[in-house]
Amino acid sequence: MTTALGTVEVQSAPPTRPPRRHRRITPRSLTGQVLLYGMLVLLALVYIYPFLVQVATSFKTEPDAAADPVSLIPATFSTAAYERLFLHSDFPLWFANSTIVTLCVTVGRVFFVSLAGYALARLRFRGRGVVFALVVAVMAVPTVVLLIPKFLVLNQLGLYNSYAGMILPLLVDAAGVFIMKNFFESIPDSVEEQARIDGAGTFRVFWSIVLPMARPALITIVILSFQGSWNELSHFIVSTQSPELTTLTKGVASLASGQLSQGTQYPLKLAAAAIMTIPVAVLFFIFQRKIMNTSEGAVKG
C-alpha cells in the first residue's frame, strides 16, 4: 500500500480453516461396524483354519492325527514327520528340483514376456493385431487340452525327461505378455523420444528406459511366475518320468495318493504340504504391497 509517507506493507491475515467436523458415532452405526468386522474375522478364520490344521497335524503322531485330525493342539508334540521327510525320503531331491525349475522359469519368463509385451506395445509391424489376438486366444485354451501336444513335441525334439523339457515350455506365458503390453502402453511415447534422439537403439531404450519404469508390473510377473511354476503339476507329469527329476508337486501328489507309504500318514502328507507352501507365502507377503497398480507407470504431463 502506497501513501504520502511512503510504502506501507499490509499483511493480510491467513485464511482460517473451517473447523473439522467430527463424525458422530451413533449406536446404529457402531453396531453396523461391529457386525461388519465380525463377519470379516469369521471369513478370515474360515480361510485360515485349514492351514492351521495342516501345520498342527504335521506335528502330531500318527495315532493322534487319525483319532482327532482337525484339532489345533497335538496331544503329543512330535517332529517325526519332518525327520522322515528330510532324512528317510527323496523330499530334499524334490525340493531341489522344484527350486531349480522355478528360479529358471521365473527369470526367463520375466525377461521374455517383457520383450514380447514391449514389442506388441511399441513396435509397428505387419500382423501385430493378429499376434495379440492369438495371445489372448491362448489364454482361453484349457491347459489340459495342451498336455498331449506338449508330450509329442517334447518327445520329438528329444527334450523329454530333462530339465530343458521341464523349463523351456514354461518360459513364456500369454497372461504375462498381456499384462506387460498393457503396462507399457500406459507409458507415454515422449519418455523414449529423448533416448532415441541421443542414438539409443530399440533394445537399449527398452532395457535402460522403459523396463525400470515397469517395476510394479515386473513384480507382479515375478510373483505369478514363481507361484505358477512352483505349483505346476500337469506339465511335469507329461514332461518327465525319471524319479531323479521329480518335483515337489509330483512327490506330494504321490504321498497324497498313498504310493509311498501305508496307512493314512496324515502328519507326513501335511508336513510336506506345509513346507511346500512356505516359499510362495513368503514371496507374497514380501511383495504384496508392490503388486502392480494399473495407475502406476503413466507419467503425468
UniProtKB/TrEMBL annotation:
<feature type="region of interest" description="Disordered">
    <location>
        <begin position="1"/>
        <end position="24"/>
    </location>
</feature>
<feature type="transmembrane region" description="Helical">
    <location>
        <begin position="270"/>
        <end position="287"/>
    </location>
</feature>
<feature type="transmembrane region" description="Helical">
    <location>
        <begin position="130"/>
        <end position="151"/>
    </location>
</feature>
<comment type="similarity">
    <text>Belongs to the binding-protein-dependent transport system permease family.</text>
</comment>
<dbReference type="GO" id="GO:0005886">
    <property type="term" value="C:plasma membrane"/>
</dbReference>
<keyword id="KW-0812">Transmembrane</keyword>
<keyword id="KW-1133">Transmembrane helix</keyword>
<keyword id="KW-0472">Membrane</keyword>
<dbReference type="InterPro" id="IPR000515">
    <property type="entry name" value="MetI-like"/>
</dbReference>
<dbReference type="Pfam" id="PF00528">
    <property type="entry name" value="BPD_transp_1"/>
</dbReference>
<keyword id="KW-0813">Transport</keyword>
<feature type="transmembrane region" description="Helical">
    <location>
        <begin position="163"/>
        <end position="184"/>
    </location>
</feature>
<feature type="transmembrane region" description="Helical">
    <location>
        <begin position="30"/>
        <end position="52"/>
    </location>
</feature>
<feature type="transmembrane region" description="Helical">
    <location>
        <begin position="205"/>
        <end position="226"/>
    </location>
</feature>
<protein>
    <submittedName>
        <fullName>Carbohydrate ABC transporter permease</fullName>
    </submittedName>
</protein>
<dbReference type="GO" id="GO:0055085">
    <property type="term" value="P:transmembrane transport"/>
</dbReference>
<keyword id="KW-1003">Cell membrane</keyword>
<feature type="domain" description="ABC transmembrane type-1">
    <location>
        <begin position="95"/>
        <end position="287"/>
    </location>
</feature>
<dbReference type="InterPro" id="IPR035906">
    <property type="entry name" value="MetI-like_sf"/>
</dbReference>
<feature type="transmembrane region" description="Helical">
    <location>
        <begin position="94"/>
        <end position="118"/>
    </location>
</feature>
